[in-house]
Amino acid sequence: MYADIIVDITHEKLDKVFQYGVPPRLEGALRVGMEVIVPFGKSNKEICGYVVGFSDKPGYDETKIKEVLGVAEDSVAIEAKLVALAAWMKEHYGGTMIQALKTVLPIKKQEKAQEKRRIRLLLSEEEGRRRLEVLLGKNQKARARLLAALLDQPEQDYDLLTKKMNVTRAVVRALEEQKIVSLESEKVFRNPIRHKRQSAGTMEFTAEQEHAIRVFREDYRKGIRNTYLVYGITGSGKTEVYMEMIAEALKEGGQVIVLIPEIALTYQTVMRFYGRFGGRVSILNSRMSPGERFDQMERVKAGEVDVMIGPRSALFTPFTRLRLIVIDEEHESAYKSEQTPRYHARETAIERAKREGASVVLGSATPSLSAFYACKCGRFQLLELKNRAGAGELPKVYVEDMRNELKKGNRSIISDRLKNLIDSRLNRREQIMLFLNRRGYAGFVSCRSCGYVVKCPHCDVSLASHKGGKMVCHYCGHEEPQAEVCPSCGSQYIGGFRAGTQQIEELVKRQFPGTRVLRMDLDTTRVKDGHEKILEAFASEEADILIGTQMIVKGHDFPNVTLVGILAADMSLYSGDYRAAERTFQLLTQAAGRAGRGKGRGEVVIQTYSPEHYSIEMAAAQDYEGFYAAEMEYRGLMGYPPVEQLLAVLLTGPDENMLDTAAKYLREFAMRVDRKGILQIIGPASPYVAKVSDVYRRVLYLKGRDYRLLIEVKDRMEQYIEINRGFRSMRVQFDFNPMNVF
Ligand code: ADP
Ligand code: ZN
Ligand code: ZN
Q1: Is residue 366 within 6 Å of ligand 1 at its C-beta?
Q2: pLDDT tens-digit profile of 241-254?
Q3: Is the shortest distance between the CB of 238 and ligand 1 below 6 Å?
Q4: How many angstroms separate the alpha carbon of residue 446 from the centre of ligand 2?
Q5: Residue 304 CB contacts under 8 Å (≥ 6 apart), including other chains
Q6: What angle do CA 660, 637, 373 make, to 5 degrees?
Q7: Per residue in 13-24, pLDDT tens?
Q8: Ligand 1 in contact with 240 (CB < 6 A)?
């Protein structure tokens, strides 16, 4: 028996796994994640390591393999817990232990903590002015410049000031020697949040809020740890409820992780938590440098942080007294990792919570089918908030059938009703949001006579029409000139099928002259803080209309928005994915929830070509339960999650024939493992996007109710792939219940 051990998990050596023998007295006593003592290096220095796996064969000369000396005395290090969690992730999502470890222990090397230096004037103002005269008299211009700046403001940031004043280190040193200034250096942790604590305020909870808080609190005080789903419409006061629960968990020294999708992690949101819990709150986001993330983790380890707010990866914050994990907008696809291990933060949070004695609180206005299903099955506890808490009634929703607009002769992308409502809002100086689930100038290019769609020759996805008569592939960047006639039938009725945000912006400016318009999409938010700046400009009413992709539906409250227009609502319905209806319902409901959050009642116009589809009908009626029932019927009929489990096996490689052969072998192998024929094995098929940048893709789907069996098949496949050379020229990845079609 041999144990694989890593001895260094904070630095860049994560990939180095060493094999040690397990002496008979330790056999059966070692577990993955345990901290052990091993002899290391030439001197056999005794150091600590973590067990990451076991094997029964020596990896090299048996006589050279050293033995594990023992289990570390009090192996309670948080690292050990995270290593064990990584092992769980490896088992449940596939991939290697190293990939799993890199996910839970993301800090590879210590960057130097940023040194912050301050420069301070040591003289009184009077004395300073006198010395300035002297310097000017001697024509020592650089020194004079610096002194003058310090006379304006006697203490400043060294780096900023010397840069601004364009003075060298020598100049500063000269003034230092003359005891005019001093340099003070302090090692600072980069805390991304500015300090400002607000008073808790006096809010009376609604009965529903009260109930949710009480259920959690009573369980918590009895030591019961559970998973709760706070299902509450937008504006029902979920965030206030989370904060009460967090306060409860913090009471006896507990610690809390709050996951919020990156897109909703706005300054406004963070400040609400910060205002309530002050300096013991910290945030993580993907724009932080590795150094900044490292500092955050150091602050955590130093015990300076009790609440960590961040996107998916914040789940692995090394808290030692974790008592609560909150996942806001739990239905968001961003909680699913797109890299191996393709873990889901919701499931992984529940696992971590179970291991460490914490509760999990999920929240959403449009819960994922799987979370709501778990409530129905009794695995999660449902806490409902059916009414809006603060001001604001639910909006009135209109569904406009765009086929009728065409019949009436309205060829615009804006229906007559939406146009009239926009006019009325502009007259009343109220704000409008126009929402489009799409990026770029126009959608795919298709022929209205024969239905032909222009695709990328390398990637097999439709090309998007861009300004300047180009068609562009959003995967590989391939470009070609806009087709004038249909390459298939020769018809002239070929063109951009649907509008993009940029085109809508132009149209709106033309149709409503003098209107101030802001646009928010991937292009306009690429610059640093672009997202925040646009939202802030809109919040301070610098524009009448905000046009944007799905990123405008999250986070911010705009009290003056009384109209939301959803253009081409069904775009997300035709993505060839079993979750398409769920995603459409969520998008429409969330977008509608943006209207009327202030004083006046909001109105929402949903424009669609399929008004009879249940996801659109139920979104218009704001009937989640109705949607849930209809959608579950479909999922059950088709055997899709959450009713059954779906495992995707994705093969990618440069040789199409090899992929086909490999996929066929994997299929046969899976059928052998599933002796009783319990699983349904689909494919192999060319996925939706069959080729990206000349790398081919094939996908095999395995479906069934027996989750353990699927995991077993996955494990056996991984072993099979490892020992068969034929798989070396390709990558095989596993994905349980994938969020998107491949
Ligand atoms: P959600 O997270 O469900 O969208 P929030 O917690 O953000 O809801 O609450 C929406 C708005 O209502 C916020 O401005 C919040 O301060 C306010 N609010 C929440 N609960 C109450 C309450 N009990 N009384 C008054 N206002 C409330
Ligand atoms: Zn055609
Ligand atoms: Zn391409």
Answers
A1: no
A2: 999 999 999 998 99
A3: yes
A4: 8
A5: 189, 280
A6: 105
A7: 556 778 899 998
A8: yes
